[in-house]
Amino acid sequence: MMNEPGTAVPEEYALSKKLFSNLVDSISKGDEDIATPNPEEYVEEFKKLFVAYSEAYPDTRPAAVSAEELEFVYMEKEREFFEENMAAYLEQYPRGAPPVDQAKLDAIFSKEQYEIFRQKFWKQTSDVISGDDKPFEPPLIVQDMLAEPETLEHKTYPGAGAEFPYSFSILKQFFPQGTEMPKGGPIMGAVICVTPQLKKAAEMVAAAKTKREKGEVLHFLTPNEKSALNSARSVAAQAEKVGAPVVVCGGSLPGLETVKTTDADVKEALQAMDIDEEGNSRLNYFIQAYRANNFSFYGDYAVHRASEPLAGPRQIIVTK
Question: pLDDT tens digits for 168-196?
């Protein structure tokens, strides 16, 4: 909700401590740890899929469908109209692919040719979005490129005045300006919001004296209580590993400090929600309107929504 580096994940994600730790680390350092793609690997995978497609849907069939689609499995009296109906049915499918010369494919279809093919695909995608849906048959396009290889113009690379500046290129890999991941900075601490399930689970485990008793308590927790407790521990561990504090809000948990709200905190939160002349605020939030003139119980429902756990930053308006 804040204009700072970050993300929101479901409780189940936090349960996987390694995944959650990697996520926090990447946000903190501004490094998403995305490996640089290998162009040769992309091309080789494309060739394998191209050959497999050509073998699965050869041009010896009237359309790019499996052989089972063409089998006649009906009563003999229906054979008269089978071919006529099948011809109309197959019109919705593209043509089959001609046989592939593997040696020619390996020798000619380089990473530059693959980049050219990708540009043709981007153009087709744009045409479909704009409503200009022209026939596009990838196997035949590749065969034409094998017969007459095309030349890649470097000015058409993404980011260099290209027609599709934000499309991924295997030859020139970069983050367009304005899309770099900012650094969140070092971990300053962890804040855990108390829910009824978390409070109950934490108090039951804290009350157990021996390891056996703790094990029995953990065994008999409900799935929701287990998830809440394990997620909270996963969040706390991220702060503890760097010696940062772990605090609790919205209640209390055994062994952890509870944040006490002051007038200054409330004032700061309200000021963060102020909307400036350009319609921006430091803290984005929801505005929920309940029209009690339509349904009288909306007033009570608004109170219920405002008091529920983890309600999030929002302003609630009830009209009479």
Answer: 777 776 666 666 777 888 999 999 989 99
Name the phi and psi angles at 2, rounded to 5.
-100, 155
Same domain? For 288 and 202 the reply is no
Query: Where a domain ends, among 258, 277, 293?
Result: 258
Q: Say yes or no: 269 and 252 in one domain.
A: no
| pLDDT (tens digit per residue) in 18-27 | 888 988 988 8
Separation between Cα atoms, residue 190 and residue 113, nearest integer Å: 50
**What's the sign of the alpha-carbon dihedral 114, 117, 121, 123?**
positive
Please tell me the predicted confidence (pLDDT) of residue 1: 47
Same domain (yes/no): 267, 294: yes
Domain that holds residue 303: 263-319
Instruction: Name every residue whose Cβ is closer than 8 Å to that of residue 37 and which is 6 or more positions away in sequence.
Output: 170, 173
| pLDDT, tens digit, 9 for 90 and up, residues 95-129 | 899 999 999 999 999 999 998 898 888 888 888 88
Nearest to 315 by CA among 263, 274, 259: 274
C-beta of residue 272 within 8 angstroms of C-beta of residue 1 = no
Torsion of the alpha carbons at 7, 13, 17 and 20, rounded to the nearest 10: -20
Asked if 74 and 136 sit in the same domain, the reply is yes
Clarify whether residues 271 and 206 are in a common domain.
Answer: no
Q: Identify whether 269 is part of a domain.
A: yes
Of 258, 289, 304, the one marking the end of a domain is 258
pTM of the model: 0.55
Q: Letter for the amino acid at 195?
A: T
Name the β-bridge partners of 317.
289
